[in-house]
Amino acid sequence: MDNKVTSFKVLKTPLENVKDNALLIGFFEGQTGLNADLKKLDKEFNGIISSYIKENRFRAEKGEAKSIFTNKGIKNVVLVGLGEEEKYNFEILSSVMADAAKKLRNGETETFSICLSSFSGHSKEEDAVEKIVLSCLMGLYKFTEYKTKDKDKIKNVKEITLITNSNKNFSSEINYAYAVSYAVNKTRDFVNTPPNIATPGHIAEYVKDVSKKSNLKCTIFDDKQIEKMKMGCFFAVGKGSVNKPRLIVLEYFGAGKSQKPIALVGKGVTFDSGGLNLKPYPYILNMKDDKGGAIASIHVIEACAKLKLPVNLVVITPFCENMIDADSYRPDDVLTAYNGMTVEIKNTDAEGRLVLADALTYACEMKPQAIIDIATLTGASMITLGNVATPYLATDEKLSEKIKSASIKSLEKVWEMPLWPEFEDSIKSDVADIKNISEEGDAGVIIGATFLKNFVDETPWAHIDIGTTVWSKADKGILTKGATGATVRLLMEMLREWK
Ligand code: BES
Ligand code: ZN
Ligand code: ZN
User: 65-74, 216-225, 302-311, 417-426: which has the minimum mean pLDDT?
Assistant: First the structure.
């Protein structure tokens, strides 16, 4: 993936002067008249646009796209339906725009233009620009790394031109959208990368390289150091694999030394077989996506550095593989966590919380102002909110508000679940301080978080469970089949506004 392949340009020119392979124009349902700019274009095309609307050949239903092929400066005028004007928002803009870009790409259109004012609705053009650039770059993503045949048939859009009446060059909005979509797409790349390649060691080498290029402080602990540091839970999970664990810590200093860092902790299980509690088919499929939280956090810190956001940030990512071996950890084992607590293992498939437990304690030692962990922690997240939204839990109202507000702006839907003390009883162990699952099996997302809470001190903390939203089965709008890059846009929005 290299989303630099699609570049964006801003051009101030009347629509009738545009010369391109295609021009996208957005319309609302029931919109009968054309504005002055469109009237001129329509005249240039002998009234064909107005006739499509008048004759109801184009109704502007949400997602509808009608191509009018011409032999003028614009070869293909695409009328894009935005649905009802009162319901129009950035979510619709993003989805319609991404679908239109995909359709043009699939039709081998290498460049096209967008009539900006027709898509911005009642919002500021600059805000719409950000969403347009993001949705095109996310929608056009394709993972082709492991294809060897017909590579030349894989086409991408080379240039998109934003046609505007304003004198603005929108450079800061385009820059932000570029950095964020690069982070989303790189996250997708790595989460899509098969587990025989994306091992903890391989990822550590990649991260070293990223840190050098982005001027991030990078510390990597190997399996021996992890054992010596007494990270007993994290170490136990990785023990059954020949691909040894790594703890990767990245630091970015964008604010003064006096400002405490924000800590992101990401679950980095490069493959989750379930361990001795082996996952049965088909649940074992796709468990390469169990590193989604860690991979997202790494690309978020890289993007923050690129954009020079005025925050201090630390990213803690424990990477390991949950496998079966004579040396694997087992049910009934009692592990001693990095914070000294003992944990009875009831299920080796609840490994994410063990890996995170030690990473969260490590995060607390860095005395951050807040800790946010991102993890593909439970399959139960599917039952909770389906694939529509990501559940999260927080110990601090202000932190929760930050996540909520970033969710609205970034269009990444999240929903808060409660961390009530009633849930604590179900992870009490007969032999150790706590056990790693509740044997009743209900309230999976909350139980996961309730377990993790034992490893965080009074620092404000939030846990985001991307068990479901890390992956998409659909190829629709900004989503493509495969890894989604979940939480990258959300965290970037939150960090951009951090106070
Ligand atoms: N990595 C899984 C969670 C998961 C499942 C992510 C499906 C994405 C898709 C996690 O380690 C796990 O196996 N969780 C168990 C917990 C259970 C044993 C308490 C689960 O959700 O079934
Ligand atoms: Zn598991
Ligand atoms: Zn897992």
Answer: 65-74
Structure tokens at 275: 């361990």
33 DSSP assignment: S
Residue of the nearest CA to atom 3 in ligand 1? 378
The answer to whether 267 touches 328, Cβ cutoff 8 Å, is no
Helix, coil or strand: residue 65: strand
Within 154-237, strands assigned E span: 159-164, 217-221
Which of these is catalytic: 279, 413, 453, 481?
279
Give the pLDDT confidence of 454-476 residue by residue, as tens digits: 999 999 999 999 999 999 999 99
Ligand 3 mean position to 266 CA, how many Å?
12
Identify the residue whose tokens are 């630099």.
Answer: 4
Q: Which of 320, 373, 378 most suits a substitution to test ligand 1, by most atoms within 8 Å of the C-beta? A: 378
349 Cα to the center of ligand 1, angstroms: 7
Phi, psi (degrees; rounded to nearest 5) at 210 = -60, -45
Structure tokens at 134: 């993001």
- Residue 1 pLDDT exceeds 70: no
For residue 232, give the H/E element and its range.
helix 232-238
226 in Cβ contact with 248 (< 8 Å): no
Residue 353 annotated in active site: yes
pTM for this predicted structure: 0.98
Q: What is the pLDDT of residue 154?
A: 84
Report DSSP state, residue 280. Answer: P
Q: What are phi and psi of 112, to 5 degrees?
A: -155, 165
397 burial class (0-12, 13-18, 19+ CB within 10 angstroms)?
exposed
Q: Is there a catalytic annotation at residue 279? A: yes
Rounded to a whole number, what is the distance in angstroms from the first to the last CA of the chain? 33
Residue 59 DSSP SS3: coil
pLDDT of 40 higher than 60: yes
Distance (Å, whole) CA 81 – CA 78: 10
Report the pLDDT averaged over residues 385-395: 97
DSSP type of residue 63: T
Tell me which of 186, 353, 402, 496 is the catalytic residue: 353
Which ligand is nearest the CA of 283, by number?
Answer: 1
